[in-house]
């Protein structure tokens, strides 16, 4: 009786392993092994709230709304501002083109801004209160761990709240 139970357990385990491998294969078939995003091939769409109107967004990899790695680009028009806010996860930003200014604090104050020209990389720990603005059309890449969220210090600054009214 023990031998039969042991054999049945082995068969069940083998079946589970085969199903897991099949699922891995199906996932691999749906996702290319190698992806390249040339500037001309990037798909830009209007960025959703909670970003202020005027921003464009392109998702390169992953899903910023879910747990796990993602990479997205933001294209911001000249003079674009993001009021004081924080993020629940580490923020990692590379300036692709243009100039980004980031300042720390609960109030928007350009005198506290640090200039970040094209080629600059920045990393910021979770829950650091900060704000930003750009000079010239600016493209950023955010490559970090999701879910990505903006929590505004002043809820009245949150464009998603204005959209609900």
Strand and helix layout:
Elements: H1 2-30, E1 45-46, E2 56-61, E3 68-76, E4 81-86, E5 91-104, E6 114-117, E7 121-124, E8 130-146, E9 151-152, H2 159-164
Q: In brief, what are we looking at here?
A:
The protein is of the alpha+beta class and 165 residues long. The protein contains two helices and nine strands. It has two domains: 1-31; 43-164, Jelly Rolls (Sandwich).
Question: How would you characterize the overall build of this protein?
Answer:
- The protein is α+β, with helices and mostly antiparallel strands.
- It folds into 2 domains: 1-31; 43-164, Jelly Rolls (Sandwich).
- It has 2 helices and 9 strands; from the N terminus they run αβββββββββα.
- It has helices at 2-30, 159-164; strands at residues 45-46, 56-61, 68-76, 81-86, 91-104, 114-117, 121-124, 130-146, 151-152.
- β2 (56-61) and β3 (68-76) form a beta hairpin.
- The termini are far apart.
- Mean pLDDT is 86; it is low at 12-20 and 22-28.
Write down the overall geometry: globular
CATH homologous superfamily identity of the largest domain = Jelly Rolls
What count of domains describes the coordinates? 2
Strand percentage: 35-45%
Distance between the termini: 69 Å
Strand tally: 9
Task: Let me know the average pLDDT.
Answer: 86
Radius of gyration, CA atoms, in whole angstroms: 22 Å
Low-confidence stretches: 12-20, 22-28
- What is the N-to-C order of secondary-structure elements (H for helix, E for strand)? HEEEEEEEEEH
Question: In the CATH hierarchy, what is the architecture of the largest domain at level 2?
Answer: Sandwich
CATH class of the largest domain: Mainly Beta
Q: Sketch the major β-sheet.
A: 9 strands, antiparallel
The fold-level CATH name of the largest domain is Jelly Rolls
**Strand pairing plus helix content: what structural class?**
alpha+beta
> Count of DSSP helices?
2
